[in-house]
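[audit] Reproducing an earlier prediction to check determinism. Same input, same settings, fresh worker. If the tokens differ from the archived copy the diff job will pick it up downstream; this log only records the rerun itself.
[audit] input (539 residues):
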Amino acid sequence: MTLLTSGHVDTFSRDNLPPKHQWPELNANQYAYPQQLNVAVELTDSMVERGFGDHVALIGNGRMRTYKELSDWTNRLAHALVDEYGIQPGNRILIRADNNPALVACWLAATKAGAVVVNTMPMLRAGELSQIVDLANIKLALCDTRLMDEMDICAQTSDRLQQVVGFDGTANFDAELDRAALNKPVRFQAVATSADDVALLGFTSGTTGKPKATMHFHRDLLIIADGYAREILQVIPDDVFVGSPPLAFTFGLGGLAIFPLRFGATAILLETASPNEMINIIETYKATICFTSPTAYRVMLNAMDEGADLSSLRIAVSAGETLPASVFEEWQAKTGKTMLDGIGATEMLHIFMSNRVGDAHPACTGKPISGYQAKIVDEHMQEMPRGEVGKLAVRGPTGCRYLNDERQANYVVDGWNLTGDAFFQDADGYFHFTARTDDMILSSGYNIAGPEVEACILGHEAVSECAVIGTPDEHRGQLVNAYIVLNKTYQASDELILKLQNYVKNTIAPYKYPRLVHFIDALPKTETGKIQRFKLKVL
């Protein structure tokens, strides 16, 4: 595959693509995009030109913004990034914020300026941010002024990060970036990036705890909309999206920004997307498409019994954890509508397999989206008979490209992406999820690397040894479960458990803390000293 002429001046991203022989087989022939493509223009300026200027694009923090307002806003910000902060095409820009319209505006503006955006979780601590800064060689970060503390610490200790610019996520436009953009023109000549220039880096922890950056092209961001969103969700301009996934995840960015903006629809962005808050939003704004976890849908089902009116929802997409058959069946019984289950991966950018409205079954993930192929394989990449559990392999118009990472060779084998999931395919061709094939802990929609939590716990003076596993949980999918050997001077106690939990919360992202803690005399190990985590799972 020959890459197009890049619009980037800073060639870091293209220079750090995996070697061609390690790429997955990609087939995007069904998408006839021009060679020059800037996805941010397609989602804003082009939408205004198509007549959507007066349609509401974003709702959040007490304000509604039309497509015309969003276009003007992002163009002013793009001018500021170039004129005041010297952004050049290809530079990486880190963005740190909760789900709000300002985050979306910054992402679109940076993309118009030709930058490669790295959206980050607001709960990440300085050490985690530093890893991202170092791996992606980031010189500029844009940060919601309410979240500056950890970002400032990161900047103070980083050799690469040169500047942190604050923006106002509350809609008051009272921060440095907002003021710099205030008097800029509402027209901006976006950088003529190529369709296969990198537009986005999505970070994933991986099972080793060392972050991996997945690399996504401008065309990829449109493919997920023109594929999954068009085929499965059948988005129309009257749709109103709401959901809980963070925009820092590619899943959230797709479901709550790219999908609605691609079709002239409306996205409601919630900084605190609790189930009760989403219920209120659905009732208030008559939301039609919802992305959230089975845990949240359980709350919604209970709320319906108490009189909540969620009848405006035509599509409920389950995400983040395995969809129990009971939730699927109860939703269908109470609403008369299908709950959509699907599987995606940060490496693949978004959902590549899903059930369909009118063609869905409990405990079934469905079939691949048009353009994707999937099969179940054994350790030797041989396809397995129907009904037998094996590794899920998939290929299609998107696929894994890690930024300068030797683990590329593990994820892509013979042109197929190995997602790390165990599945079986039934006699009718439907795919069914069984489990993760690695030690990643999936809890309430978060991917948590056990070794990273272990490393954190081992930093506490009371801890001699530690092993972390995922324990099944009806409500969260899995719980982070820590088995700890204490130093001889410490005694096991409930007080110490609380101290260790708080230590983790204050050291790394709080959602990674162990909800279960067990003190044991010794960890089960092999003769060579390797911890036998499988033995912990039966304790």
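[audit] rerun output stored. Observation attached for the diff report: The longest strand covers residues 463-473.
[audit] end
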